[in-house]
Amino acid sequence: MKYDLVVVGGGPGGLMAAKTAAEDGLKVILIERKKDLTKIHRACAQLFYTHKITASPDDEAGKAHADGYIEPVSIELFSDKCRFNFPGPGFSIDYEGSYTPVYHWIDMSPSKHIIHRHKPYNKVWALYYDKEVFLAGLLASAQKAGAEVLTETIGVGAENTPSGVRVRVRGKSGEQTLEARTAIAADGKESDIVESLGLNKDRTVMTSPLKVLHYEMEGVETNLSPFAYLWITIPSLNPYGNFGMSLRRMGIRAVTAVTGGTLSATTVLENFMKHPNFAPWFRNARLVRKRATSGGVGLRTPIREPVSGNVVIVGDAAAPVETWIQGAVACGYQAVKAVEKELNGQKGYPEYIDWWQKAFAFNDPHYWKIAGVFSLNRICTDEEIDYLYSLFHGRVGCAMGFVNKNLELIKKGRPELYQKLIKGMR
Ligand SMILES: Cc1cc2nc3c(=O)[nH]c(=O)nc-3n(C[C@H](O)[C@H](O)[C@H](O)COP(=O)(O)OP(=O)(O)OC[C@H]3O[C@@H](n4cnc5c(N)ncnc54)[C@H](O)[C@@H]3O)c2cc1C
To answer: Per-residue pLDDT tens for 321-338?
Structure first.
């Protein structure tokens, strides 16, 4: 057996797994399909979430919306670096790139009524950081500790054997099989390894494929704080998703369209920038770079038990949508600790499964019940969104949470809208 561990996929989950395994003395190889694994082409908001985006403890819809990885994390700032602490699993990662604090999340209607997702300006809610620098740091540590890294190579499939696992890979020189005692599938949302192991059969596809387009722009002019993250709902332009805006570095903002169905993300985003209420923001704006994500089969329910024989599934490969960067690295670390236990004759895999089920909000079946009603833009017109947001303008909470709690008020003011909401939220 040549390797203790083969890791397929060099995103945050796979790199953390390779680094942890190599530092702990395992013979590990990482397989990545990209040439330069630190370059990211996919859209990613690149926020390190420091606390949950929950409006209030009893706001069920707020809780459901964005709580991916729910174990606590903290950030220490030094003059030359940041340290991301993961007290649950018990590790820290140093990061030496640029960062910008985000204090505020604002939900906005077409006519700019706003709801504050949490109390404004009381805490840093997230830190924008540079994922490429973060990945480069993990890669350098993994290689320093002795991990072998094979780029421009695709993990095609994995097969369990009585003594370990065979991973088929395809590179420039053709196909070969790697023999190992264990493997980790960290090849992201449309994982080939998960598919080859038959683990998608029991998963339900919940949505049409999502498309995301980011424009990073200079010269965007709004009268809102640059340190706020904006989430704008305009059903007439985008019935499948929303528009986002975040600060990247001083002066650079990312303007984002998240959409689906047959709509082109470019058309959706360009139309947003021409909308009469938002066009003035972009009058003097200049495009700096684009990033996009699309394809796949849509959001699938998570894998309940992400271990198959000697293969452990980590990060987005096992998740409905996003484990987040921080959730993926926590998975990579925990998966290696599970593998090490198993290699020492202990029961590491049941512990990993138990941790996975508790560490991510989307593993709670209740999450899906609430998340299902999270689509006001599929139910309402622009005017109706404006009406609903105007009822709660300036308050701290989550639009859907307010709607759920104030159905009687809406019934009195707009009985026809009430009927639509009841029907649409079912
Ligand atoms: C629009 C959008 C915004 C987001 N915003 C944030 C955010 O603000 N903060 C945050 O923390 N997270 C965010 N995320 C989520 C975050 O990007 C992911 O959760 C995280 O990157 C998952 O890490 P991973 O290692 O599991 O998978 P990935 O990052 O997907 O890495 C998988 C790796 O495997 C490689 N690969 C794929 N298939 C193969 C194969 N067959 N063989 C070999 N290699 C393969 C890929 O090239 C890639 O390098 C966002 C995601 C999207 C789509």
So the answer is: 789 999 999 999 999 999
E-assigned strands of 9-80?
A: 28-31, 47-49, 74-77
CA atoms of 364 and 320, how far apart (whole Å): 12
CA–CA separation, 5 vs 303, rounded Å? Answer: 21
Ligand 1 touching residue 32 (CB < 6 A):
yes
Distance 36 CA to ligand 1 centre (A): 15
Helix axis angle, 324-343 relative to 131-144, nearest 10°?
20
Tell how far the Cα of 316 is from the centroid of ligand 1, in angstroms. 7
pLDDT digits (tens, 9 = 90+) for 345-385: 999 999 999 999 999 988 887 666 555 445 688 889 999 99
What string of DSSP letters covers 98-118?
-EEEE-EEEEE-TT--EEESS
Token pair belonging to 221: 């002019």
Q: Is the CB of 34 under 6 A from ligand 1?
A: yes
| Sheet containing strand 99-102, strands side by side | 47-49, 126-129, 99-102
Note whether 295 and 313 are within 8 A (CB): no
Please state the atom number of ligand 1 nearest to the C-alpha of residue 13: 25
